Structures are given as structure tokens and as C-alpha cells.
């Protein structure tokens, strides 16, 4: 599974009903509209997601994870965790990891302040 497929599927598993508006998913992934459209069409062709029209907005649509998409991301997750461990976690000490967590929490808190 490509990193792009994994990113889409993980985001869809993190939202209620495995359903997200195209524009919201594109914003989270930081993808241009054209990339979103083409990539989601390819994933739909492989049965990982489906496109559903938005009943409240004729111009809007949802990307919805399928059972096959859920199975694919569940199968890929252990390999993803292993790669993160091998490429990153195995190379930092517990103290460095705590420091990174502290820094990340401060940055996220600042971002949350700026949004509010």
C-alpha cells in the first residue's frame, strides 16, 4: 500500500462512519483538488473507498472507506508501526523522546491558541 493510500485510509478510520467530505480530507492531507480527485478515483477503482454525493450540498461529496479499505489499512498498520520503530524510535533515547513530546505539546498548544 502506498503512503498516500495509507494516509487517506487512516484519516477515514479516524472519523465517524468512516466518511469525510472531499474538501475536508483534502485539507487534512494538504492535497490539491486535482490530486484528491485522481487519487480517490484510483482508490475507488480498487474498492478501498467509495464516493457518495452529499444530500445537503449538490456540489459536495463524501469519501467513504469500504470494508476492503478497512481490511487493507488494518493489514498495513503493523508494517507501518514497524517502519516507524525501525526508522525513528530505535534511534532516540527515552529522554530524547520525552523531550520531543514536550516540544510537540507546546507547539500544538500554540497552534490551538492561534486557531481559537
Q: State the assembly state of the protein chains.
A: single chain
Number of helices: 5
Overall spatial form: globular
Radius of gyration computed on alpha carbons: 17 Å
Q: What is the number of strand segments?
A: 3
CATH class division:
Mainly Alpha
Indicate the mean pLDDT: 92
The share of residues in extended strands comes to 5-15%
CATH topology-level fold name: Arc Repressor Mutant, subunit A
Give unreliable regions as ranges.
none
End-to-end Cα distance, whole Å, is 36 Å
Strand order of the largest sheet: 1-3-2
Percent of residues in helical segments?
A: 55-70%
- Total domain modules: 1
- Order of H and E elements: HEHHEEHH
**Major sheet characteristics:** 3 strands, antiparallel
What class, by secondary structure content? Answer: mainly alpha
| Relevant CATH superfamily | Winged helix-like DNA-binding domain superfamily/Winged helix DNA-binding domain
CATH architecture: Orthogonal Bundle
